[in-house]
Specification:
- The protein is α+β, with helices and mostly antiparallel strands.
- It is built from 6 helices and 5 strands.
- The chain has one domain: CBS-domain, CATH 3.10.580.
- Helix 4 packs parallel to helix 6 and helix 5 packs antiparallel against helix 6.
- The longest helix is centred in the C-terminal third of the chain and has 12 residues.
- The two termini are about 30 Å apart.
Length: about 140
């Protein structure tokens, strides 16, 4: 089974020049905890609800005026939509991440996949093993 078979296709993103407040509003409205950051159709990072809380709110930064680029992770990790689920789960464990943007081979954002998606929709124990390795690393 390939990642395209289990990923969330309705994937929002945010620009790096947008405010953290807008990012948080999008996350709340869509019930998600992370947004890919894209500029000019190029994936440049990720911002999570945890980033906003621990790196902005906890340090008393003004989320209305702080830009996403100031706190996003610019370590751009992703997988391709035609990759095998087991391979992606293994990569997620190695990289210690719980979610990844999904790109096509033209490097256009197609969706998002999480360990939860893998656990809910894939056969086998790929998600369990990956989550165990991520937890042990933490």
């Amino acid at each position: 089974m390939q990642i395209r078979d289990i990923m969330h296709r309705d994937c929002s993103f945010i620009g790096s020049d947008e405010s953290l407040q807008l990012a948080a509003t999008k996350m709340e409205r869509e019930g998600i905890g992370a947004l890919p950051v894209a500029d000019n159709d190029k994936l440049v990072g990720m911002i999570t609800d945890r980033d906003i809380v621990t790196r902005a709110v906890a340090t008393n930064r003004d989320v209305r005026h702080t830009k996403v680029r100031e706190l996003m992770s610019d370590r751009v990790l992703y997988c391709y939509d035609d990759e095998d689920i087991e391979k992606v789960a293994e990569n997620m464990a190695e990289q210690e991440v719980r979610r990844l943007p999904v790109m096509n081979r033209a490097k256009e954002l197609q969706g998002m996949v999480s360990l939860g998606d893998i656990a809910a929709k894939a056969s086998g124990n790929a998600a369990g093993e990956s989550l165990k390795r991520i937890a042990e690393a933490a």
